[in-house]
Design brief:
Blueprint: E1 6-11, H1 19-31, E2 36-40, E3 53-56, E4 83-86, E5 92-95, H2 98-107, E6 112-117, H3 119-130, E7 135-139, H4 155-176, E8 179-184, H5 191-199, E9 204-206, H6 214-226, E10 232-237, H7 265-277, E11 281-285, H8 297-315, E12 321-326, E13 329-334, H9 350-357
Parallel strand pairs: 1-2, 1-6, 6-7, 7-12, 8-10, 8-11, 9-10
Antiparallel strand pairs: 2-3, 4-5, 12-13
Helix pairs in contact: 1-8, 4-5, 6-7
The structure holds 6-O-phosphono-beta-D-fructofuranose (F6P).
Amino acid sequence: MEKRMRVAINTGGGDAPGLNAVIEAVTKAAYNRNWEVYGIKNSYGGLLNTDDIMRLTPENVSHISSIGGTILGTTNRGNPFQMPVTNMAGDTEIRDVSDKVVENFRRLRFDCLIAVGGDGSLEIAYNLFRKGMPVIGVPKTIDNDIQKTVITFGFDTAVSIATDAIDRLHSTAKSHDRVMVVEVMGRHAGWIALNSGLSGSADVILIPEIPFHIGKVCDYIMELELRGQRYAIVVVAEGAAPAGGSIVDKGQGEIGRQHMVLGGIGEYLAKEIAKKTGKDTRSLVLGHLQRGGSPTTFDRLIALRFGAAAVRMIEEKNFGTMVALDPPHVKMVPLEEVIGQIKNVPADHDTVKTAREIGISLGE
Ligand code: F6P
């Protein structure tokens, strides 16, 4: 008789619209094979404190695919290889508690962990795989910066939200003859800024992959003025930086956090533009709005397909791999080839060429 598999699933890093769709698809596809599914809460936290594990059934995940966030909770501070632990003296020290994670995983007789996450969480999954834990990765992030997959779920929703915001800024910018600077997320990749800026008819798009010259940005804004357009929309990725300058960040944030907190380039740019052009300039940061609410149809579909594919991969015992989109197919790639490097916008990408060809300034 076929073994009744016990599948664990967790969601790690920043949330992204579509996480619940993966959970729904995994649960239903597993139950249809007569397997059991357990949700590990708060990233890897539920494998340390095993009270934080919930049984998932087709009933309790029914139609959650349309809901944003994750019913399992998530964190970008829960790396079991570098866990902040408070000692008896009240000091916080960083410890490797990964053995405990593997021990609990085995004690609970799980056959596989489906780790749904971004680059940080997938790297943790790969390191646990190297310690003998069967894992399958599912790529999520609004930033779309994971290697070996054309798209991650969450990205389409973030771009749609940012595009809608940029669309709305046109009328207010035009009414006041103002320059509006919109800072969008994306960490060190410019995918959100590029796609939303292009779709929302921005005048200037600044991305981390192309260091910008503030003089060029200001010249372009004044050139628009001469042509009769007295307002401008500038979309800037949070990780963009001036040529020869550095990224604006807010430091590492909480102890044990996987990545530094980016942000502030929009405000910096607005001040520089106002100073150099004399134009009334305002900045806004879209921030976590880009991660909130229901996933778009595209993200739901990708997430459902990724979840079902992950279960197929367990059936075929293809552990240590990640589900990836290679349109029109969903395929698997070794986790080893995914981690340690992010997927940036290539300089010769046709979206970059399109922006240039239709007259958008990239600050070059
Ligand atoms: O990786 C997703 C992301 O939203 C980035 O675009 C952003 O820099 C970061 O997470 C924000 O993290 P937090 O939710 O911890 O503020």
